[in-house]
Give the backbone structure.
Amino acid sequence: MPEPLLYAKTFVIAMVASALFVLAITKLRVVSAFRLNLVCIIAIAIGVGIGFIAMRLQWQWPAASALDRFLTLVLPAVLVIESITNHQRVPDRIKWGVRFCFALAAARILIHQSVYLTDPDDGKRWQFDCILLLCAGMVTAVWWSLGRLSRRSQDTVSISLALCMSIQSAGVSVMLAGYIKGGAVAIPLTAAILGTALTAGYAIRRSQDKLPLYPDATIGISVVSLFSVLFIGHFFGRLSAADAMTLMIAPTLCWISEVPVFRNGSKWGVVIVRLVFVATPLMVVLLASKREFDRNYAPLVEKRGVNIFFEQTTPAYCTALKCSPLP
């Protein structure tokens, strides 16, 4: 069963832990762009780890489910890759080639040993391979477009805020679709990224050399986290493909702020435009998910003696909802 107080406590603890780490390091010494990215990566790792402990989130090793593979393989891998590729001596072609290969590998890792690969429908395996390729292309495109917008507009915070909104909306949508644990993982992720982005933005504003400093790693980790939550929610939960794609693409609406009528406005006006345009499709998806939950799952919740969240991995739950067992 969802525990709002536990989720709220987890969010605060993870955000404060990440923020304090960034503040402590940047307060002690002036950092370069590369070192600031390293500080952001470590801060996100600390916040996420402490958040998982506070939420009492458990995972298995060797990984037995897509969520286990995300927590033990995909998330640590993107932290390492961003630690390396954000070095200024790494050419852009190599950097984006590595990131595309990682996006393709991440989708394949998450789906590993699932029925989609071990027992595909006749003649459908090649179609599923095409879906994985399209997923990798979409992740790389969103990643590249937001990184380019960050440098073009010299933005350090608003894009990360838009990504945090998307990740948390994805988590809530996955939870409303019946996969509580899969959606709850978004809470410490959002909190750690939010705390890191806000304090990194403060450190950049405080630095004497502002222009070369962009926390690109925060954007990369956020995009991969958003994709992973949506991918798990769609293929191992009941999140629809349309909702998943809408939530994945929504952060790119930040580009609307580059329209001349908005771009020439005040700095805070640009931030508000970005957040409003990103929040609009997120709210539509959340309302649709809530309506779907009220129609399909609420009667089961209200039924005496039945708790669909508590019993979501039991045969009774699977029979009631006529769905495949959740990981």
Notes: Residues 175 and 181 are 7 Å apart (CA to CA). Confidence is low (pLDDT under 50) at residues 304-327. The first helix runs from residue 4 to 28.
